[in-house]
Amino acid sequence: MKTCVVLFTRDLRVHDNPAFASSVGAFDVVLPLFVHDPALPAGDNRRAFLRGALDDLRSSLRARGGDLAELHGDPVTEAIRAAKTVGASAIAMAADVSAYARSRETRLAAACESERLAFKTFPGVTVVPPSAVRPGGGGSHYKVFTPYYRSWEAFTFRDVVGAPKKVSLPADAPKSWFSTAIGDAGETAARKRLSSWLADIAAYGDIHDDLAADRTSRLSPYLHFGCLSPREVVDRAQGQEGAEPFIRQLCWRDFYHQVLAAFPALKSKPYRANAEDEWRDEKDALQAWQEGHTGMPIVDAGMRQLRAEGWMHNRARLITASYLTKHLYVDWRAGGDHFFDLLLDGDVANNYGNWQWVAGTGNDTKPYRRFSPLRQAERFDPTGEYVRRYVPELAHIPGKAIHQPWELPAAQRRGYPAPIK
Ligand SMILES: Cc1cc2nc3c(=O)[nH]c(=O)nc-3n(C[C@H](O)[C@H](O)[C@H](O)COP(=O)(O)OP(=O)(O)OC[C@H]3O[C@@H](n4cnc5c(N)ncnc54)[C@H](O)[C@@H]3O)c2cc1C
To answer: Where's the Photolyase/cryptochrome alpha/beta domain (predicted)?
Structure first.
């Protein structure tokens, strides 16, 4: 079975897409992949447009029996990881021209070579590939439009390729790669997600704290907006092998709802009387935390995941919230409000209930508990893969050394800051 990964970048279509069509023609199985790259920020409008384009591409792929895998992080690292996970022997993509795109292409070509994968680029971003028509006399490009236009018109354009009719996906691609919550709202998507999640539930107890595995249900936004009934979720989970730890989490949800019902000021007042600490008024520290530039990689990875996806893994929520309140001593309300602003599942009971739990002002029976970010990182991201995904400037650091970049020479830290005090 020959498998290929097609890395989509800004060729978000199935019609006349040479990289995609050729791969579907030449391989038995194809993984269409888009990687959300934190190094390529986009304003709100462009993000919304991109989201729409990806959703539409996914529908077109699904209509052909395929799907769109969406990953987050450095596109080179993620494309290689995807290829290895599904046992692909090749990666294909459209060639592009910006300095960033070209360096991405060069890095990917080198990574493919060292992983013994074939790598091929295809045209498609322009009518005529940039270097296909050149001025006489050896120049690299035309400096004036009209002569360029004449050569361009005289050039034999490539044939338009049709949209492939059928796409076969690798059977072993993890379910969590497909159909992220953002943009996939509503009851219909929620019910689909629940069904596919229930097929995966047995592993939950062992793997739900593994940051890189990303194997929790991601049902929280649907539960928040009531696209799914929590009662029905429990009903469908009950009796399935390994469902107990998952059902327990749903109980946490009910727990905080009954706390909020009894204590409506949960968002603004400490739940335990006299539990308030003396918080520091540290605007710079708060901002560094919000932007994912604290110098503590596991914290920054979580905060960047929140910004990029409107969602954060529960373990990362615990680590980042503890870091803000018990390391930087910044008021839990500032952290809670920031989460609430960005989370798709932002929910008064669950958000502020959990924040107060972490800050020691709420329902934790051990209010002085403090998570060591480094120990948490070594335990729940032992290979550094989660950090590598969201903090691309550290992605070149191998293994768990990525968790302590301050131990490395400055050149290897590539501008990544020292931990803030
Ligand atoms: C500081 C902090 C802030 C949080 N803010 C929110 C929030 O605003 N909205 C929200 O829904 N959850 C919040 N949580 C709880 C938890 O992190 C998310 O519910 C979970 O990560 C959502 O992912 P999932 O659906 O894949 O969870 P799964 O692990 O698959 O759990 C299934 C469901 O159980 C419920 N659940 C899981 N953990 C908790 C928990 N600790 N408390 C309450 N309910 C839970 C959620 O509804 C979740 O969808 C917060 C946790 C922390 C530590």
So the answer is: 2-127
- Cα-to-centroid distance, 187 and ligand 1 (Å): 19
Integer CA distances (angstroms), 310 to 83, 203, 340, 344, in order: 26, 25, 10, 5
Q: Tell which wins on pLDDT, 61 or 188.
A: 61
Host domain of residue 398? 283-413
Domain containing residue 229: CATH number: 1.25.40.80
Q: Which amino acid residue places its CA nearest to atom 17 of ligand 1? A: 314
pLDDT in tens, 228-244: 899 999 999 999 999 99
| Residue 42 to residue 209: CA distance in whole angstroms | 31
How is residue 7 written in tokens? 């890395």
Q: Is residue 157 part of a domain?
A: no
Instruction: Report the 10 Å Cβ neighbour count for 159.
Output: 8
Q: Are residues 199 and 104 in the same domain?
A: no
pLDDT for residue 181: 44
Cβ 356 under 6 angstroms from ligand 1: no
Whether 345 is in the pocket of ligand 1, judged by its Cβ within 6 Å, is yes
Q: How many CA atoms lie within 13 A of 352 on its CB side?
A: 22
- Beta-carbon contacts of residue 97 (< 8 Å; ≥ 6 apart): 125, 130
Q: Report how far apart, in Å, the C-alpha atoms of 229 and of each of 235, 324, 346 are.
A: 10, 33, 17
Domain count, the chain: 3
Same domain (yes/no): 257, 287: no
pLDDT, one tens digit per residue, over 282-305 is: 899 999 999 999 999 999 999 999
- Percent of the chain with pLDDT strictly greater than 90: 69
Please tell me whether residues 75 and 116 are part of one structural domain: yes
